[in-house]
Design brief:
Distance between the termini of chain A: 43 Å
Oligomer: homodimer
Strand order of the largest sheet of chain A: 1-11-8-7-5-6
CATH class of the largest domain in chain A: Alpha Beta
Largest interface: A-B, 34 and 34 residues
CATH topology of the largest domain in chain A: Rossmann fold
Order of helices and strands of chain A: EHEHEHEHHHEHEHEEEEHEH
Largest sheet of chain A: 6 strands, parallel
Number of domains of chain A: 2
CATH superfamily of the largest domain in chain A: NAD(P)-binding Rossmann-like Domain
CATH architecture of the largest domain in chain A: 3-Layer(aba) Sandwich
Radius of gyration of chain A: 19 Å
Chain lengths: 279, 279
């Protein structure tokens, strides 16, 4: 079994991005919108900004109040869409429940959409259009597979979870690489049968240790997008029951240190791509 | 085995649309852009206009020359996007090869996109956004399943073909109904194994009689999106080898008279929905 080391690859990519940023004639800024008091989101947004700074990308965090309205978020997005020194922007999810997330994502200028979550970019991705900005987590996973020379062509891939932020753009990218992809979810009836036929199994449900050895084919590639903090031990855990399956798999992403670091890195990759395209 | 009669359902829906159109305070117009000399496309576009007229929907066919440029098509779309009496518009596919289809579809105002093929609408559909205009063929198939009370919840659905015009929006709509969906294509390695596990099998590849009894589970629902004219007999044929499989299936769409008539009907359903939304 080999570890797909997202931390290592991430550092390699960041070093490369740093060069590109310092060669850029224009300043590159990523603005981040955060709404409300969710502590993990606040920490995550700060980590994104710190990582950006390390490679020379600037930008502000716009922290709106918990009781902000959809219209207030939309109006800020419109401002940043127009603002010349905002190279790219993103909205941290999840938003407070009373805010219309789809409306917010739809309002982001697709040309400045660092996280690749606007419906326009998702649609372009499914049309295999190379102008599309792919969702950061999905592209991060593809880069990780590439780095370890894992070929997707003709492979049976099963994705557990159907979020438009991760699973669906990933589905588009894998299909573009000629994989045969199945999306499973809470209403799937024979999940173990389906997942244990997968050459590449990806789980993005956020249920610690949900996937045990009964779900897995020997020699499979396992990608763990789950990320949850165990309330008792305080440990960060993925969807896969790592110890149970590590000897069955050929490749596996650890949690932490697998998909997680790739997500921030790819957000910055997208930001730099946007900057270079608009130069 | 029961036939899923698209012709019959189509007539029922058209009668209903006719009432809605005559009750509408505003004139409803569907403009159609056709580029080039492809005879089947020309006939198809005329059929769309005739059907529209029968239920009181007006509109023009804009027939551009075979050697038109992408820019010429884009400029016409921009005009129609703005034109007040163009309720909705569509571009007949396939376009001549030197025209950039994605650019053309991206230029259509998503609010006037009768065929639901703009990337914005495809993205919204994947986000389960009820403001999305679904691609006409995909919605037509869903309406046919609904009419015969075929429940998709928890069903294993296999779609053969990965076009962004039919298969991908269909995938989004089926997943929204809680089906577990797999997309197969030319690079899929074990197509017979995968398709013969499907409760609902949909083929959209346009290869006459490609799908025989080896691909099918007894009791499956079979949806044939294929449409090809046999060069020897002149007969219209679908992807399924109908005579071989009709006794195995529980439900099947005939070709012609299944999915085909539903596509035009749903194009007009979308046009009327757009008109009523903008009223």
């Amino acid at each position: 079994m080999q570890i797909l080391d997202g931390k290592k690859l991430s550092q390699k990519i960041l070093a490369d991005l740093k060069k590109k940023v310092s060669n850029s004639q224009k300043e590159i800024n990523l603005d981040i919108i955060l709404v409300g008091d969710d502590q993990p989101s606040l920490k995550y947004v700060q980590l994104k900004q710190e990582t950006a700074k390390k490679i020379g990308i600037g930008g502000e965090i716009f922290h709106l109040k918990q009781n902000s309205t959809t219209e207030e978020v939309l109006s800020l997005i419109k401002k940043l869409n127009k603002k010349e020194d905002t190279t790219a922007l993103m909205v941290q999810l999840p938003l407070p429940k009373k805010i219309n997330t789809n409306k917010v994502l739809s309002a982001i200028d697709p040309q400045k959409d660092a996280d690749g979550l606007s419906p326009f970019n998702l649609g372009l991705l499914f049309q295999k259009e190379n102008q599309a900005i792919p969702a950061a987590t999905a592209l991060g996973i593809m880069n990780l597979l590439d780095e370890y020379k894992i070929n997707c062509h003709g492979k049976n891939v099963v994705i557990i979870g159907r979020s438009p932020e991760v699973s669906l753009p990933l589905f588009a990218l894998l299909m573009a690489k000629d994989a045969t992809v199945t999306i499973c979810h809470t209403q799937t009836k024979n999940l173990k049968d389906i997942s244990s036929r997968a050459d590449i199994l990806i789980s993005a449900i956020g249920q610690p240790n949900f996937i045990n050895k009964d779900f897995i084919k020997e020699g499979a590639v396992l990608i763990d997008v789950g990320f949850a903090t165990d309330s008792q031990t305080g440990q960060v855990t993925g969807d896969f029951s790592f110890d149970q399956i590590k000897d069955l798999a050929n490749y596996i992403t650890p949690v932490p240190g697998g998909v997680g670091p790739m997500t921030i890195t790819t957000l910055l990759t997208n930001t730099v791509s946007i900057a270079l395209k608009n130069n």
